[in-house]
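Fold this sequence, please.
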Amino acid sequence: MKPFAFFKFLFVVVATTMFLSSCGEDIIETPVPPNIKFNEVLGYISSDSDVTLGGSFSVSISGVKGTSPMKTITVDEDGTNIDLSSNRITFVSGVGGANPALLLLENKNSFDYVVTIKAHTIFGIKTYNFKVADEAGNISTLSLKINVIGASVNMLEGILLNQSGPTGQGGLDLDTGAGTGSADTKADIRDEGVVNVIDDGTWKQQISGVNGSVIKYIKKGQNGIAETFAFSNIKYKEEISPLWANGIAFNQKSTDEQKELSAKVEKGDIFIVKNGEKYYLITVKDIKITPETTGDDRNKDSYTFDVKF
């Protein structure tokens, strides 16, 4: 046999052998996981969203089996399954009793569920994962980032004048930032005036509550307040009232023991004011001390407060 013909014959033999061998092997099927999606339906979210503190969110989710029937649906928050006993999660369609929840009967092939979740109770972002597993162990996951926010604070500037000046000054309305008389019914805080109007005109530079207001200090690194605490970081109304428990009460009393007074107020001081169910967070942005003079210019000393509520 000629060399060329021999190699041609050998190629045909090898190719035939490989073909016959492959025909005898099973074809391995690539498993297809469940196909799941968020439905874009009015009233349900299907993408990353903001939720107010204490609020809930709902998703409409559909699933269709892949290679194998579906078995379970699981909902977790940052990788931890949400405990059904916490009453934070509801499968409106009636599935439940556990998390993961078993998919039964026709739901193994396809389902349409509404899931309602009470969002986390701290400000910031957490990821919620919706996982569907089939009987072969294949898993498909949908995820949402939920940012818990609050109602934006109201912020204003108010100037509190020395009480010992002309009539009509010495009080501050924290709802409007308007200066008032120290005994005005609209005042929430007031200045304590000078040491002695006749003998000593030195400004005390102290404040107190009025018309039912109680004031406490907020001090960084003390009584549970973080060293990194900053007035500027308070963005939501819901952040203010919890600070009351961490406030430090005034420890000075008026001469008649009828009211609690601050120590000498300094620039940068932070206070929390409670009046009934209202809370105000205030900080001293500036202090103006005027020279001792007579007439209308006397006792125009003042604090400038930033107020959040």
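The helical segments are 3-23. The radius of gyration is 35 Å.
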